[in-house]
Design brief:
By secondary structure, this protein is mainly alpha-helical. The model has no long low-confidence stretch (mean pLDDT 80).
Length: 97
């Protein structure tokens, strides 16, 4: 069997695991060298805020009554895909009557 190696970014037709299972390639794991990942400096958490601190930091929001934020609320009319067909049929039937 012949293989053609090209210097392009192409999508493989089969993956390495399938090629191994088909006997097209072998992976010689005895030649592998295990390497440790490079050390990365750990960045600690700089600041942990408790819920009370967050609420105190935004009094213009947290001291209002529920539902009292300014602006318009837009509700989504999205319907789950499995239900959308039934909804469309129901709407057509209600338009006919």
């Amino acid at each position: 069997m012949e293989f053609l190696v090209v210097d392009r970014q192409l999508t493989p037709l089969i993956g390495a695991k399938a090629a191994q299972q088909m006997g097209l390639i072998t992976v010689n794991t005895q030649n592998f060298k295990i390497a440790k990942p490079p050390e990365r400096p750990r960045t600690g958490v700089k600041n942990v805020q408790m819920a009370d601190e967050i609420v105190a930091g935004y009094p213009e929001v947290s001291q209002r009554e529920l539902g009292a934020l300014p602006g318009t609320v837009h509700q989504s009319n999205r319907v789950q895909l499995p239900l959308s067909h039934r909804l469309a049929v129901s709407q057509r039937q209600s338009k006919r009557s």
